[in-house]
Amino acid sequence: MIGVLIVEDSAVVRELLRHTLESDPGLRVVGTACNGVEALRMVERVAPDVITMDIHMPGIGGFDVTRRIMETRPTPIVIVSGTPNVAERVMAFRAVEAGALAVLPTPVGVGHPEYEENAAELIRTVKLMSEVKVVRRWRARGAAGGAALCPPAREAREAREAVKFPVEMVAIGASTGGPMALQSIVSGLPPDFRAPILVVQHIATGFADGFAGWLGQSSSLPVQLGTHNTPILPGNIYIAPDGHHMQAGPGGRLVLSREAPENGLRPSVGCLFRSVAKVYGRRSAGVLLSGMGKDGAPELKLMKDHGAVTIAQDRESSVIHGMPGEAIRLGGTTWVLPPEKIATALATLVSAERREMSTDGTA
C-alpha cells in the first residue's frame, strides 16, 4: 500500500481527493492537512510515501511547505491545484523548483464527464511519483555520473569539433523531471544565443502557459507558447501549447496540429524531433531530458542519423531516466550530460558556429 498525505485547505476538495485516491486498492490516505503548519506536523507523524500539495493555503503556502519538506524530510510531492489564472500556474512551478515532482489540476467533481480521466491521471501520477527516490539533486550543481559522460575538460573542444555545419535549430523533449532540467539549461544560455529552441514538455492540460511564464523568469532569452504558422525567430524559446503537436515547418515557420496523439501523447517529442530531422537535418541539435517511457528516443536516433548533434540527460541527474535511457540504449546520442553541461555544450555549439562562419567570411 502507498501511503498518501493530502494537503488541501478546502474540505470539499480534501474529500474528493480522498475518495479518488482510495478508489484504487494500492493507495491509502494516511492523513490530511488543511494548512501548511499542520502539513509539516503530519509529515513527521505519518511519514507518507507521497504527498498531494495545494498551492494557496492560509499561513504557510504550498511553495514554502514544499521547500521545508524537501530540506528536512524529502518526500515525493505532487502539486494538485486549481488553475484560475496564469500567476497561480506560475506559482505551481515555483513549487517544482522547490522540489515537487509533478503538477496536476484539481480533479473535477465525481459527476463530471471528465472525472474518470482526471481520476486516472491523478492515481497514475501519485503511484509513479511514490517510486521516485527523492534527493536534493538540484541544490548541488555539477554532479556527474555514468561512463558515457563527456568529461568537463573535453566539453568545449568536443562541441567545437562537432560543428561541421551551422547549428540553426535546437529541439528539446522532456517529461517528468523535465522542468528543473530545462530551467538549468535555459538559465545557462547566454543572451546572444542565436539558435531558436523548440520545446515539448509533457505537462498537465492547463499549465503550459504557467510553465512558459515560470521558465521565462530564469532565461535571458524570450520564452513563449508556440503559435501556428509564425516565423521561428533566432534566440527565442517556443513551448508546445496544450493539446497540440508542435513541429518545425518548411520556410522556418512553426506548425501546430491536433493530429492524433502518438503513444497517447499530444504534444509528442517524437513528432517534434522527426520534423527537425526532416527540415534541418545536420544543421540541428536534439536534447532528450528526464521522463518516463520512450517518447522521442527513436526520433533522437533519427536526428543523429541525419547528422544532428544529439544529447541525452545522464541517469544521475534524471528524476526518471526512461526517455533518455532508451535513447542511449538505441545508440542515438552524441553525448550524455547533466543539464548544466548541456547548456555549456549548446552555447559552445552555437558560438562555434559563429566563429566558423566569421572565419570563412560568410557572416
Explain this structure to me?
With 363 residues, the protein is an alpha/beta fold. Helices cover 39% and strands 18% of the residues. Strand 1, helix 1 and strand 2 form a beta-alpha-beta unit. The C terminus is likely disordered.
Count of individual helical segments: 12
Give the percentage of residues in beta strands: 15-25%
Strand order of the largest sheet: 8-9-7-6-12-13-14
- Which structural class best describes the helix and strand composition? alpha/beta
The CATH homologous superfamily name of the largest domain equals: Methylesterase CheB, C-terminal domain
Structural domain count: 2
Largest sheet: 7 strands, parallel
Order of helices and strands: EHEHEHEHEHHEHEHEEEEHEHEHEH
Secondary structure layout plus pairing:
Elements: E1 2-7, H1 11-21, E2 27-33, H2 36-46, E3 50-53, H3 62-72, E4 77-81, H4 86-98, E5 102-105, H5 115-130, H6 152-162, E6 169-174, H7 178-187, E7 197-201, H8 208-216, E8 223-225, E9 237-239, E10 245-249, E11 253-257, H9 269-279, E12 284-288, H10 297-305, E13 309-313, H11 322-329, E14 335-337, H12 339-359
Parallel strand pairs: 1-2, 1-3, 3-4, 4-5, 6-7, 6-12, 7-9, 8-9, 12-13, 13-14
Antiparallel strand pairs: 10-11
